[in-house]
Each structure stands twice: as structure tokens, then as C-alpha cells.
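Q: Start with the shorter request: fold the first protein.
A: Done. Sequence, then structure:
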Amino acid sequence: MRLSILLFAAASLFLLPAACGRLPSGAPVSEDIVRQSADQDANFALYSVNRAFLPTVAQWPATGKQERLNWIGASNGAKSQIIQPGDKLTLRIWDSSDNSLLTSVEQKMVQLQDVRVAANGTIFMPYVGNVNVLGLTPDLAREKLQDELETIVPSAQLQLDMAEGRNNSVDLVSGVANPGTYPMPNRNFSVMGLISMGGGIGPHLNNPQIRLVRGRNIYGTSVDNLLNHPQLDTLLRGGDRVFVEEDERYFLSFGATGKEDLHIFSKDELSAMDAMSISGGFQDGRADPQGLLVLREYDPEAVAPGVRGPRQTRVVFSLDLASADGLFSARQFQINPGDLVIATESPINDALTVSNIIGNFFGVFSRAGIL
């Protein structure tokens, strides 16, 4: 009886792998991908990522949701405000003469409250008529109105205050503690100054992005880029609208990674090594460090004649993180939005799985006292 069981167990050592073939697993084996790419009818192209290949792939077209928005460089603006249509001016006029056209004996000062600047840039003053103040600073406008007033009332003195209208205000729409419409204190008002005035960026935003809407144009960059490059902190114009929003780009991780999930970009540029860190790295004892794969799909235009791009629209990039060149290349290979990062399984896992099954098989009989 015992001899029969031993013979059966020995036969199982040879028959079980053959019967099972490749045991089910949660990730592909890199050898399988390489073998499939060699087929003549393979519908994808396979590229090994190394130092020599990096300059080539860097020139290929972008993929995924990557908004290529321009940005406006910073410049110096005036430290004072400029009067625009829609602004409101408050005029206070003093006249001490006894026979003044503007004031009475009891009241030596008259105030013209919230005089709106017309669409053509003019305001109306009694006894003077329409005066054009468009594009003037408040100080220059006061001097011009004073000169016009002195021709009628030589002893009059004028003071001017300004309240900014729509053309001298900007909208901070989202992504900050206090969104709203903010008057521009001067012509040297920048994007980061506006965000600061709005209470700063919400802590929940991942890699916050800035969108500046000016007329029909949209400009974009990231907050991190502005912080690292102050020369890009552009000046605002009246009527601008600024949005701060979370980075919506993502990549996917699958296979023998620490976490299979959808991951939002945490910074402007992510390398393959960054992606592995975000996804939890390789699973110990299961992953094959020589078989990190990045799956990407290009637009059909990328494979058109005369375009520097891949051989096929579906591409698999293979990185060997068990070599020094592979490690350095993984730090420079850029992950695109929508990429699928796969940590493949080591082929030895299949043999280990079979070994465990057979070990358990003998253990059961040993505990039963048969062996």
C-alpha cells in the first residue's frame, strides 16, 4: 500500500507540471510578451528601453490627455492703476470763494459720488462737460480734471478717488480658499499675487494646475512650475479669469506591483521609476525585475509616413531593472497619461507553485501516518 502511494507521488512530480501547463497568475510573464511580439501577425511593437533608445522615444508624438497649453512670460508693470471704462470715480471739489459756481456759503466742498467712466473713456463734470480720462492713472486724471476745472472756477481744488470696475478686476474662479472677483491694486498684479489674495491653494488638490482665460485664449501651467521659475509669474489684465484645478492625468498599474490601481500624476513629469514608487514597487518573491512593461497606444498619425514614431500604434516598452543601464533609463523614461505599467511575474513562480502543491500533498499523507 505504502509503496503504491510512493509511486503515485513520484509520478505526480512529473505529471503535475505537464497537466497544469502554466498555472493561473495575476500578471503576465515577460517571456510571453516577447514571444508574442515575434509573431508575424503581432498587433503591437516591442521596444527595449535603454540609454541608446531614450533620445528616439523622446521625439515621438505625445499620447494620452496632455494639454499642450502655452504660457505667458512675466514682465514688469506699472505700480499704479489705469482708468478703464466701468471704473467709478469720486470727485471732491473745494472752493473757498464767496460767489462759487459749485459750493455755497455754508458748504465749501461738493462731492460727486461714483461717477462712472463711460465706454468711450469720458466722465461728465458740471460746467466743464465731458473729459476723457481713459488710460490715465488716477493722479494724471486728477491733474487733467483740475486744469479743466480751473478754466471755469480758478480757485477750485479737486481730489479724486477710484473704485475699480470690471475692466480693472480679475476673477479667481476655483481651487482657492476664497474664490471671487478681485480688483487689481495696480498694473504689477501677478497670478501668484491673485492666488495669495484668494487665501492660497486648497491642500486637497493634487499637483494643482493653473488655467488663465484671457479673451478667447486659454493659457496653462502648473503651480509647481511657477514656484520653481518665478520669471513665469505673469502679470494679469483686467477681465482675466484664473482657475486652479487638480491634475487630471493618470496612469494605471497592474500585475505584480504593490498596488493595482489608477494613479493621478503627482508632478508635471513622471518617470518609470516614479511610477513604480507610486504603485508600491515590486511584490517580493513574485515580480520579475527584468520585466517591467509599459503599454502605450499612439494615434494613427504617429505611424504615418514621414513622422518620427513607432512601427505600430500599440507599443510595449520593456525595462530591465536588474541592470544598471535599466535603472538609469527607468529614471529618464517618461510615463505618458493613460499608460499601463505592468510588473510581470517571474517564470520561477510557476515551479514554486507546483513545488508547494506537491509539498502539501506529501504533508497530508505524512500527518495521516501513511508515509
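Q: Next, the second protein, separately.
A: Sequence, then structure:
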Amino acid sequence: MQDIKIPKHIAFIMDGNGRWAKEKGLVRIAGHREGIKRVKEIIRSAAGLGIQTITFFAFSTENWKRPKAEVASLMRYLDSFLDKEIGQLHKNNIRFLVIGRKHPIPELLQAKIHKAQERTKNNTGLNVVLALNYGGRQEIVDAAKRFAQEALAGKAVPDTLEAEEFSRYLYTADIPDPDLLIRTSNEMRISNFMLWQLSYAEFYFSPKYWPDFRVEDLKQAIGEYQRRERRFGGIDAH
């Protein structure tokens, strides 16, 4: 792995858990269970690769439409992750954050999330961000509402609003924008994920289902990223 041009922030759309399970004759939730193992592996490896922030798209605002049993299982897996992993993350100086709308996430789970964030908020190592009950359009709407409220209160001036200032109203106010988006299962869309933040990110689409995506695949994605020229609307430097 080259030590140049390492993406500081990598965002993951973890797609293909259900299809992975179906092809193996398993129930869908088995794919999610296996997918959590990949999350843990990548968290363990990210800092050593020079990455500063990783964001996982864990549950979208649209995912509530899935079968109730599947949604309940996903919430239990998150609850278990908080119980079993936060202590280790804290020990390793990892900061844990969750972005997205709180409602209708169960209140007990919300309390655990808040506790985990408070426990790790002063850690200075890797940032692990979970996008939970998250939607990109919803985030922008919520940000616009927050700005409007401040404007009505005389705390903000609409005529002077710039993009950088507006970013402060997003869920990711203190998180740098992703440099690289990785989506698995060869689906080539962003599915309402970080619409504002991904404006200048590089995209990498892996044919593998998320449960089959390993650290070596992450290194391959980073290698592809290093071969690209990011111009941010400018021209090629060469």
C-alpha cells in the first residue's frame, strides 16, 4: 500500500447482504450478521491504512419498509454492537458517531447511542460514523429548517449564506466530506446517501457482496483511488 494520497474519509454503502444469504440458501438476516463481521474487520484495519474517518450506511430512512422481523433483527444487532464493541473502540482511542434522524429509533437504543457517543467524544484516533435512519434529502431538509429557525431568530442572515456555512447545519457538521465512496454488490447508484457531502468524492463500485468484501478489497479500492486525479472542478494538473 502506497503511503501517498490515502483517502482521509471513506464512506461505505454496504450492499448485498440479503442476496449473499439467498444465494447460500440462508435467511436474509444471516447476511446482515455476516456483514457486521466485515464492519468490525474494516474498523480494526482502517487506522493502520492511514484512514482518519470511515462512515457506514447502516440503515436508511427507507429501510423501515422492510419486513418488521428483519428491521427488529437489525436493531438488535446494533444494540449488541453497542454493548460489545464500544468499550474496545474507546480503548483504541476511536471516536464513535451516529448521523441521521432519531425518530422512530427505539428510545432505549437512542439512549445507548448517546452514551456511546459521549463516552468516546474526546478520543482523537479514527472516527467511526454510523449513518442510521439516514437519508440525504432528509438531511438537507433538516439543515434548511435549522437555518430558517436561526434566521427567524435573527442569528443568521439568508443573503450572506454560502455553501461552507450551510454545511454547519448538516448532521456531519464536524466531519470532513468523504474522499472515496465504496459501494458493494455492483450497484452503481448512491441511494440517497450523503448527497451534499459526496459532491467531489471518487466512487468505487465493487462486484462483491458486502459479506465478501474484505480488507484486501479495501486496499484495492484505495489503490484505484490513488491512480485517479481529483480536480474539484478545475483542470488536470499535468
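Q: Describe the second briefly.
A: The CA atoms of residues 82 and 112 lie 7 Å apart. The chain has a mean pLDDT of 94.
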